[in-house]
Every structure is written in structure tokens, then in C-alpha cells.
Design goal:
- By secondary structure, this protein is α+β, with helices and mostly antiparallel strands.
- It folds into 2 domains: 1-36, no CATH class; 38-125, Lipocalin (Beta Barrel).
- 21% of the residues lie in helices and 46% in strands.
- It has 3 helices and 8 strands.
- β2 and β3 form a beta hairpin.
Length: 126
Amino acid sequence: MSKRWLIRCLIMLPILLCVIGLGGTTMGWLDFLGHGKPAARDQQLVGVWSAPGIELDIRADGTMDYIVIESDKRQIMKLTYRVERDEIVSNQPSAPREERTKFWFEDRNLILMFGGERSSLQRSKP
């Protein structure tokens, strides 16, 4: 294997990975390496979403608050997240364990599917 061939492969690899998108619609080669910017669809997640009894504050920096509202109490869970294809992969640093939640958008609502349960959240703040 020549040095010139190896250099060509190293130059072409990022281009090839970008073109094929690593098989996912939102995961390009920079995301795979951990250095990419979120795709446009992933940016749609950013904001405050709510449904009766819950609020989800998703920030562009990869953190989010999951808030459970019960009468006069608010329980806040601080989470980190990343997006992989059609899933939000969340983790609670105080009790580490990844959770995967499928998501999509319907009629301006954020739809979440977790544990067989479907939730529809409306944007309450951009």
C-alpha cells in the first residue's frame, strides 16, 4: 500500500461519509465523529414543549429539563440528550442510563413514542 493511496483514502473518506450520510437522515459524518451541528429537523426540537402534566425544555447545547407538574409541585429532571436518526437518546447524569424515545412532527406538534405510549406535545415557547 503506497503512501499516496493512503492519503487519497483519508481525503475521500469524509466526502464519502457525507454523501451516504451513514445511513441516517440526520446523522452525517461530522455527527458520527461527534463534531457536527444538528440537522435542521433536530433544531426543530429546541424550545419548550408541553402537554397536560408535563413540560419539556429542550436546549441546543444538548441539555433538557423534563418537568412533571402535579397540582402545586414541579418535579424537574435534568437530562442530557443527543439525536440519532429518529430517536432522542436521553440520559440523567445523576442516575446514568440511556433512554431512547422515537420522535416525529405532526401538524406542528412533537410526537414522542416511549414504552409503547404516544405523547403529543405542543410548542409553548420557541
